[in-house]
Design goal:
Blueprint: H1 36-63, H2 67-73, H3 83-103, H4 110-145, H5 153-184, H6 187-213, H7 217-246
Helix pairs in contact: 2-5, 3-4, 3-5, 4-5, 4-7, 5-6, 6-7
Length: 247
Amino acid sequence: MDRMRPTRCPNCEYPLAADHVYCASCGQQVIGEDSLGSFITHFLGDYFTFDSKIIRSLVPVVLKPGFLTNEFRIGRRARYIPPLRMFIFLSVLFFLVIGWSSSSNELTDSDQLQEQVFWDRFFGSVLPKMIFLFMPCMALLTFLFHRRTKTPLLIAFVASMHFHAFVFLAFGVYGLISALFRASGALAVNRWLITALCGYTLYYLWRSLKTIYQEPPLANSLKFVGLLVVYLMLLIGASVFAVWVLS
């Protein structure tokens, strides 16, 4: 026997019209949740929707600098992972990789062990706090350098989140790959990889600014250099201070 159609949402008590499939207030489906077939259908639908969002988000965040920020600005947002969620998710994965990579090193010398504990504290506790502090710092610097474009501060924050999400993803993957090369003794390959990755990261930031703010190449390059110099000075200064405190 078919289940009677409710006149109010079971979840939030919002009144339902006869043609409502989903509640207009909370979004819950009106009927069809009480069968195994419906449960499996919704699970697969949610899974593949999320899976498609991952592909649509991570591919451009790596290969198309500035693209996701522009998509956010023009309102195409539902098809991608929200910027803040992406930033937090990839930052957690990055620091998990860092923790795994450092714990996989077998140290027997007491001095090396003490040094490893120090850097574990730095990467595991201090650096995450610094990154979460410097993400809005970079957003503010980006906004100030491009204030004449009249671009809202929100876009600078979204651009900063997407840039740092890329950094977390790229260097997280590098951490996994470098651990394999380090275990096999291919340190030269490791050095080549980190050099190439740092070079691409600089290009990524330059290209992101060009894509988002649409300024002439010379103006974009000068602002990129200024932003990079100020940001790195603040980051290095904060890192030196943190190391001094830990010591």
